[in-house]
Amino acid sequence: MKNHNFHEALPMRLSRYFLPVLKETPSDAQIASHRLMLRAGMIRQQAAGIYSWLPLGWKVLKNIERIVDEEQQRAGHIPLLMPTLQPADLWRESGRYDDYGDEMLRITDRHGRDMLYGPTNEEMITDIFRGHVGSYKDLPLTLYHIQWKFRDEVRPRFGVMRGREFLMKDGYNFDLTKEDALHAYNRHLVSYIRTYERMGLQAIPMRADSGPIGGDDTHEFLVLAETGESEVFYDANVTDIKLGQRDIDYDNVDECRAVMEEFTTLYARTDETHDADEFAKVPADRQRTARGIEVGQIFYFGTKYSDPMGATVQGPDGKPTPVHMGSHGIGVSRLLGAIIEASHDENGIIWPEGVTPFHVGIVNLKQGDDEADGACDALYKSFAALGLEPLYDDRKERAGAKFATMDLIGLPWRITVGPRGLKNGVVEVTSRRTGESEEMTPELAVAKIAQIYADL
Ligand code: 5CA
User: Fold this and answer.
1) 47, 109, 247, 264: which has the highest count of C-beta atoms within 10 A?
2) Helix (H) or strand (E) holding 419
3) What would you measure as the largest C-alpha separation in the chain, in angstroms?
4) d(CA 296, CA 244)
5) Which residue's C-alpha comes closest to atom 29 of ligand 1?
6) Domain named Aminoacyl-transfer RNA synthetases class-II family profile: which ranges (predicted)?
7) What is the spatial distance between Cα 219 and Cα 206, in angstroms, rounded to a whole number?
8) Which domains does the chain have, with CATH numbers?
9) How far apart are CA 195 and CA 242, in angstroms?
């Protein structure tokens, strides 16, 4: 299998894990993803819109972060890390310190200096750029980080979906010309679609409003879901467009533009930019009004920050030129909620293979039976040796309780091991998504599951 893991595989026995599942459905959680994340012991609320990530939730968050990271690097973007706390002075330079309003958490340090917990990083990255880059020869450049943000939302709700503290990937492109910056915009659009598809999500780019970030060109990426906070209007045919396994050359300007056009030509807008006259031109049987979850947004805003902050490079003519910029964000922690909204049933979560916290669950129907214990141990070791992470339910619990836990936490594959099957030399492999089971030898079960992940 392609092992992109930055960490070692972590096979786990449930008896030693920390998985505080809740028996009751939390009454204050209004949407499925919030309820399921609490019930599956993934998060714990510490204050309004502020969560601890418990081991299972943390593992999924890391998986999502890894996919985002890989796709950014595939597109040629360079990772770094900026702090969560920022000096207010940088924001005074851009004029946003006063403009940003009550969503900004303002802090004063012991010396009386104004600080803030970053809601986004345009100013700071522009400061880094102006301090270290001086020539057009160093362009194009796109820097990004995956870092916690704080926005003092009036109504934090729906769990990680609208948090106050949340994890975002934010990237910033620096280019000599508007044309180059628009290539960066298209490159981000393509890489985002690829990122979401790897997580089993269809996120439709829709023309949107730029809000406090600024600029004229902006698209939001929306996952259709009844519980989504945005109202969206689109041509039904947009949902047929997929990137799939296409090999994209991110340096190829025409290729990226063609993909951008393919995904953004049909009508698809959020309520902020919805235009009834334009929408009326879509054939009536294809007009759709729905709700969506915004899992990302890209912006081109030209010299909005580079001008006031003096981020210039020496152009080919030797003259200082302000750089053209854009910023590009993915709601990393929100994505957990979006994935669950898109993929669950009445029994619990159904993780897509790309982000699942464990690759496979092993359920021992008769803990303490030598043969069953031995077969489970052997499966566990085989998966671990392949770099896969099984979660082995080795507790002395009833079968029903074990199945309920596995269904709730949503591992896409389950292997059930019991004395009866073992007499015939078989275990049962069950798909969480379809509920279908198949009997096979333990060796074939390992091979089947290993193949599924190798094909991702
Ligand atoms: N600087 C730009 C792009 S880097 C920016 O901040 N864009 S943003 O405001 O659109 O945020 C990027 C993404 O973060 C959003 O698309 C959304 O998915 C996520 N996000 C924004 N606010 C929250 C929140 N309160 N809770 C969870 N995720 C959020």
Assistant:
1) 264
2) helix 419-423
3) 81
4) 19
5) 331
6) 49-352
7) 5
8) 6-19+358-454 (3.40.50.800), 32-348 (3.30.930.10)
9) 12
